[in-house]
């Protein structure tokens, strides 16, 4: 057998441990790995518990107020009624034009909502900034079939933004381009461009097409809003 040169590395097999030491070593290793397995289990449990806690925290009944604004006849009240539970919903053909404002309270996606459905009539628009002071989110409804008044809608949007607490306070804006069931309505991208939403850099906003009569797009819009309200807490 050729002798190893001194520079050649010795291996474990060159110096076998006595059986007792070797098994003690194995026991230590397995104890350590069991301890680390326990730690991993504990961490996993804690992760699971914190996931459940955050889930419950997130969806335990919470409260938020919404301000619903937009020109008269845009479909605000019809949209609010659509979001309500079936049992308390007023049928679309029995909703009168709003006078002043109307407050509705209902729970949607585990959030207790207080909804300020404002009149869009010119004589009541001055009320919007007052109710914007405390709101958690704004729903701005646009009649996507009414091309002649979209410029007016833009002015009212700027007005409520500049003459209210919203000027300094971040709060999410949901833009609903309503009446998309009708022919020749403006697509959301066109409405966004006219309203100048590109300039909305300091707040979160979302725009989608919807129909308060068919329900199209309304769940999508509300899902975004609820997510924003969750993030804000
Ligand atoms: N085709 C169509 N009609 C709609 C839609 N939403 C609302 N309308 C109709 O539009 C009209 C006005 O609806 P409202 O919900 O009263 O409008 P509003 O924005 O609350 O109006 P004010 O209370 O006056 O500010 C009603 O005749 C509704 O039936 C829609 O998605 N599609
Ligand atoms: Mg109304």
TrEMBL record:
InterPro entries reported for this sequence: P-loop_NTPase, Small_GTP-bd, Small_GTPase_ARF, Small_GTPase_ARF/SAR
Keywords (A to Z) from UniProt: GTP-binding, Magnesium, Metal-binding, Nucleotide-binding
Protein name: Small GTP-binding protein domain
One example GO MF annotation: GTP binding
Domain of life: Eukaryota
UniProt cross-references to SMART domains, sorted A to Z: ARF, SAR
Ligand binding (Mg(2+)): 77, 98
Amino acids binding GTP: 70-77, 120, 178-181
Family named by the database record: Belongs to the small GTPase superfamily. Arf family.
Keyword Membrane included in the entry's annotation: no
